[in-house]
Amino acid sequence: MYSLVIFGPPGSGKGTQSEKLIEKYGLTHLSTGDVLRAEIKSGSELGNQIKSLIEKGELVSDEMVQEMVKAFVMKNKDAKGFIFDGFPRTVAQAQWLDNMLSEISTSVNIMISLDVPDDELRIRLLSRGKVSGRQDDQDEAIINNRIDVYKNTTLPVMEYYQKAGKAKGIHGLGTIDEIFGRITEAVAL
Ligand code: B4P
Q: What dotted CATH number matches 2-187?
């Protein structure tokens, strides 16, 4: 099993590059953002709680996200490997992921970190907000909070993977194909 974490600030292109990675490597994709948005769409009580956090640009609790990730991985134990997109977002989630994968005798092979300047993130997210209807992409104050949460809470996850010798930084500006080319060089599967 080959598992890859795609990491970066909001708007860095994680979802965009995941689509190309799935196509090339046949890995099974898990976007925690997508799973959370599906829960919101279901109209459940849990979905309402998640909605209020996402619309403020805050993270959902580790426990809630971990439960969703575990259910997904256990359901797909025969996968060739996974792309974890937007997960882990805290050091606690990263430690938990290592433990959970070791239960099925596997581990994260590589962490791809997309590096994009803040100004470009704001441009991309506001432009997606105009077409996607995503509330968290339409308000600059919420976007700024997401970037702050990334720097304060999520960035230490990079150090976690650096210490494990698994982090690869990728320059995240350029065309989608140019960035994908840099990623495939790093993955070298
Ligand atoms: P996500 O869905 O992960 O949202 P995101 O960080 O904005 O990333 P996304 O994948 O959507 O965007 P991308 O970088 O591809 O999370 C949403 C929320 O859910 C979080 O804020 C949090 O509240 C919650 N959540 C999710 N996971 C969680 C976790 N593990 N723990 C706790 N809470 C969690 O950016 C794409 C945009 O840029 C697109 O519009 C694309 O067209 C554009 N783009 C991409 N590449 C480009 C390029 N090369 N040039 C120009 N534009 C480009």
A: 3.40.50.300
